[in-house]
Amino acid sequence: MTDTPDAIDALLGxxxxxxxxxxxxxxREWLRTEYGLTKAETAKALRVSPATFTxxxxxxxxxxxxxxxxxxxxxxxxxxxxxxxxxxxxAPAQPPAPAHSPSAAPSPAAPVPPAxxxxxxxxxxxxxxxxxxxxxxxxxxxxxxxxxxxxxxxGGGFCVQAPAPTGAVPxxxxxxxxxxxxxxxxxxxxxxxxxxRPAPPAAPTRSARPARPAAAxxxxxxxxxxxxxxxxxxxxxxxxxxxxKFPNGPLAVVDPAPSGRGLVAHLVDGRVFDVPAVMxxxxxxxxxLTAGLGESRLHKHGKDGDPLIVxxxxxxxxxxLPPMGTEPGxxxxxxxxxxxxxxxxxxxxxxxxxxxxxxxxxxxxxxxTPDGAKRSCVQYCIPAWAALTSAGWTIPQxxxxxxxxxxxxxxxxxxxxxxxxxxxxxLSLMEALRPPTxxxxxxxxxxxxxxxxxxxxxxxxxxxxxxxxxxxxxxxxPADVLVTEAWDWIRPIEAIGDGERAxxxxxxLDINTAFLAAAGRLTMALSEPVHELNPVFDPKIPxxxxxxxxxxxxxxxxxxxxxxxxxxxxxxxxYTTAKVAYARELGLDPRPTEGWLRHESGPWLDPWHKHxxxxxxxxxxxxxxxxxxxxxxxxxxxxxxAGLQEHGDPVELAILAAIKATAKGGVGKLRERPxxxxxxxxxxxxxxxxxxxxxxxxxxxIDTATVNQHRKIRRFAQATGRxxxxxxxxxxxxxxxxxxxxxxxxxSDGALTSVWRLGISPGLCKHEGTQTMDWALExxxxxxxxxxxxxxxxxxxEGE
Length: 800
Description:
By secondary structure, this protein is of the alpha+beta class. It contains 22 helices and 23 strands. The strands form 6 sheets. Strands 6-5-4-7-10-9-8 form a 7-stranded mixed beta sheet, sandwiched between helices.
């Protein structure tokens, strides 16, 4: 017992054990990224793993003890260096007068920080609004964040009550009831009052356990939704008004409760709800319709998205769904659905629910016959049946239910709620952004009318454009076909000069989301084909034109732009408007002998291009690569891209891969071919009944991407004298004096070319890979495209 006083003195000397205050996750991430630190090096300094640090920064877990104190010290140190000090000369704070005091109203007392988090200003993508550092309205210390247009710290994490500036007069807080617009900037001599915080939306029965902290800045997470008052919402902002219907986000991941009895639903913002007394799939479906889940429409004439329920493997078992396998009673992936005799399907049918023709499979849609204008529909995703292990999804192994909700929620926020494979979602996004029809009021009542600029009718393609299985293609000449595919070209080995062979390396340049870039502002077909003989070529008319470019004399060191293999055409052939217009640009004189033309056209996929482009750029920025980095610091851009897969957040990388697959797969869906061993050529298949199905539009996108790429390599050859060795789709392989892309792109004066521009924006390029010249020559001699393996693997097998 002689050591007891010393031990007590040691405890007292350590000071009171109070939790060290940390800023909100958004501010933690901003401080680290602005300071230029990576997650890996920060985690190393704090002596924790990168995964643990990611959980700290995103708010999924809170550091404790000495680790928490060290993290707080790091954040305060970064804030002290990044943000200027508070303005000097502030007067001491005066205690607020009692409410009954005659002088209570004009009292200049400092405002009291809010007890809970305030509603922060956000851009449509969900990111927090920031600006130049200004004194926080609560504590006077500088903050870059804004709430109702005023500077404020996120959640008050760094706020310490400070005196109000001399002569400050608090401004009245705007409220939704009065419809006040947010102030554009704080007055220099006034300290505005706290922004209005609306009441939280109604929610399903909440679990007794503490809810997870909202993690709007967590990688992949969807910001917590707030329901704006009707009076404050713009009349024409249909999406903002519809958000009131879905306060709990677009989807939930359902998992068994820790107690083993019942289920819990993990929302995309980290909240956890009990699913009350639900033990059957029909009951879960009923609960979902009342859970505040769903997605706001993307177009004023569109429809709100149905809620999505993702069942973890354990939840699927608890609900009576069989595992995937080949044994009797298991789910057979070959069939793609549960048999109608399965007890789950029978229970749904008995409860009045119906299934689509796809049945109850990995991605199921359960609905009731609409009652008037009301639709009751719930989507299900069953990962146990490989719903998320293929078809464009690359989900990291070992994700728990909250992390899976954050990943799918991040995709839903930036793209839309998943509808199946990424290709199916890409096609659904086209229809959501350009609905085919709208309600039209006539003298006899309401009817359906087309939406301007949309594909609203179903029609067959022209015979040269149709795939071989289509009914209109059964009697055509096999040579009378429009052939459009991405490039797979190798320069003949005898056409590679000695000077090129002497260069030590080959460098691959890859165009970012080339098909997505080509779809922007592209004039596309909106009506049926019309056959014309000897038409006068018009580059504004989308269609197929029969021309002869076989006699064109083009540089043999470049691929021929008129064929997928890059070899010269051998006679007349069918070409899209994009190819014929480029022939004119090359100095040729196109004289079509036939044409299948569309006289209704427009930039049908431009909203789709803008939407996915914004999703792609947002994800890249969250991975630490901003839009202008490639132009501002090319070396830093190449280094960041090289370390992306190793150091990037796995959740954000999965979202990035899904966005890219959505763009590529959506284009492929425009010419979806029949599937199934029972199909016979000449029969119609379901995809033909979609207004969006049109192989010409797919061909126009691919040909536009090809023309854009050929224009780049032609201009680069004219400027530098460097010609490609091979092209595989959007990857171009060049001989290079050095291993870096900058060695290839720099001219003799040291300046970077303006033809191939580095950057993350769709249409710009990045470094795909580097190998030796001997390696490339060996592959070319074996008639193997170097672009397939220049990254180190097999680009075709990996879906590149």
